[in-house]
Design goal:
heterodimer; A: alpha+beta; Cytochrome p450; five-stranded mixed β-sheet; three-stranded antiparallel β-sheet; 14 strands; B: alpha+beta; Alpha-Beta Plaits; two-stranded antiparallel ribbon; 2 helices; 26% strand
């Protein structure tokens, strides 16, 4: 099949058709100017090399969105996020990121692997005790990252019970009134603020204590700023990880050959399997694929030429990771779900300055969660159709019914 | 360690171009084709360099003393 004049946005269309459209797009042009229902026009970059060039170029900034310019996106972008680290530029970005970055480095995260393994085993023991079938979302996919980030932050058990509700309100794109969102935001703010006051009085070996201490050591930081970072760590700290556990498990259940390749050597294959899930999971599951908004946009501070296209000062520009993650110039057999893929520089977690702060943690959690599930429950299968979450920026599932 | 000299190494296979090192220790690290490299070697001991080591998301930076011994990560 050939696509004569590939249009963007496109879909939803079946994965095979989406792959053809994306190939035609990359061949035709490096980027497309899209007009979004919110925030107006934005360039979406389709080619991998052009995405990287933009993400490495500091002439693209995010400050205008913090200052109130609406984010070009196909849903209304949650306002909370526009005030966080993800929307800052250096030097503010550096000042805030350095407060928490130490906790999320590869080296530090590796020290948490054993504990994460114990959590995974404990959750599977509980699933087995409760009996088959079960909802993998509630029993496992959400619980594992919530317990890991809860331990890291130093949030006691009772505080974690509200994490999902709070986060989904802060990431809501529809279905909630501004009052409902405000109420959840205030509850989370008040809760974390109180917790940090406790930790200031009685410091523990956790991230909230470290943040409270950082506030005391640096007069430029306000209590509100510190609490907002803690909020971001809660909201960003488990939701996307849970989603990729759910999607990754579903993809493996839908791909017998790839599942067999994983089962042949779980410890050896799980690192590349997780990268391939991050790159390609929605295609491996089937269902409709759309090309639309990508990663969080930037704004050009001056005229910049990328791959021969002039992006004018003041124009918004974003990465289309779905198309870039299938670029034939970078990925061999790009259309194929291959859990042993060796070269896989996907852009799902972005690249450069705003590369996902939690990436090493998320990778470790995904490796432990998915690897352990298939090792412990080798007969795992889908019990009925999954139910997806609506109206939340990060998506995810409400129910993933599995039996074993 | 008054006249001690350090050698900075960046593992460019691990580097993801996140620029934390460039931003906290701009005298010592520069972005080159999307990845970090040391500006010069050897260098005088520096707290900024130590912070860069500590902050690097992919733990790609190491610092050695004159005898080749590891200064950071310790």
């Amino acid at each position: 099949m050939t696509v004569a004049k590939p249009e963007y946005p496109f879909g939803p269309v079946p994965p095979a058709e989406a792959l053809e459209i994306m190939r035609a797009l990359r061949n035709d042009r490096p980027m497309t100017k899209v007009s979004f229902p919110f925030g107006g026009e934005c360039w979406l970059i389709h080619r991998h090399d052009a995405c990287r060039a933009m993400l490495e170029d500091r002439r693209f900034v995010r400050q205008p969105f913090t200052a109130g310019r609406p984010v070009p996106y196909d849903v209304e972008f949650p306002e909370f996020l526009t005030k966080t680290l993800q929307f800052m530029d250096p030097p503010d970005h550096t000042r805030f990121r350095r407060l928490v970055a130490k906790a999320f480095t590869m080296r530090r995260v590796e020290t948490l692997r054993g504990k994460t393994q114990a959590i995974a085993d404990e959750l599977i023991d509980a699933m087995v005790a409760a009996g088959s079938p079960g909802n993998l979302v509630d029993a496992y996919a959400l619980q594992l990252p919530i317990r890991v980030i809860g331990d890291m932050l130093g949030v006691p058990e009772e505080g974690r019970a509200n994490f999902v509700q709070w986060s989904h309100a802060l990431l809501a794109t529809s279905g909630m009134t501004p009052e409902e969102i405000g109420e959840s935001m205030t509850s989370l703010y008040v809760y974390l603020n109180g917790l940090m006051a406790d930790k200031r009085a009685d410091p523990q070996d956790d991230l909230l204590s470290a943040l409270a201490a950082a506030r005391d050591a640096d007069d430029r930081l306000t209590d509100a700023e510190i609490t907002e970072i803690a909020m971001l760590l809660v909201v960003g700290g488990f939701d996307n990880t849970a989603n990729f556990i759910e999607l990754g498990v579903l993809a493996l259940l839908s791909s017998p050959e790839q599942r067999a390749a994983l089962m042949a050597d779980i410890d050896g294959v799980i690192p590349t399997a997780v990268e391939e899930i991050l790159r390609h999971v929605r295609f491996a599951i089937g269902g409709g694929i759309s090309g639309s908004a990508g990663l969080v946009p930037f704004v050009a501070t001056e005229d910049v030429e990328i791959s021969g296209v002039l992006i004018r000062a003041g124009e918004a520009v974003a990465v289309d990771p779905t198309t870039a993650n299938h670029d034939d110039n970078v990925f061999a057999d790009a259309d194929v779900f291959d859990v042993t893929r060796s070269r896989n520089p996907h852009l799902t977690l972005s690249h450069g300055l705003h590369h996902c702060l939690g990436a090493p943690l998320a990778r470790m959690e995904l490796q432990v969660a998915i690897g352990t599930l298939f090792r412990r429950l080798p007969g795992l299968k889908l019990a009925s159709e999954p139910v997806y979450q609506q109206g939340v920026l990060t998506g995810g599932m409400i129910d993933l019914p599995v039996s074993w | 360690m008054g006249r001690a000299r350090w050698t900075i190494e960046v593992d460019r296979r691990r580097c993801i171009g996140n620029q934390m090192c460039v931003n906290v220790a701009g005298d010592h690290f520069v972005l080159d084709q999307g990845k970090s490299r040391p500006v010069a070697n050897p260098v005088a001991p520096s707290d900024d360099v130590l912070e860069a080591v500590e902050l690097c998301p992919h733990s790609a930076i190491t610092v050695r003393d004159e005898s080749g011994g590891l200064v950071e990560p310790s």
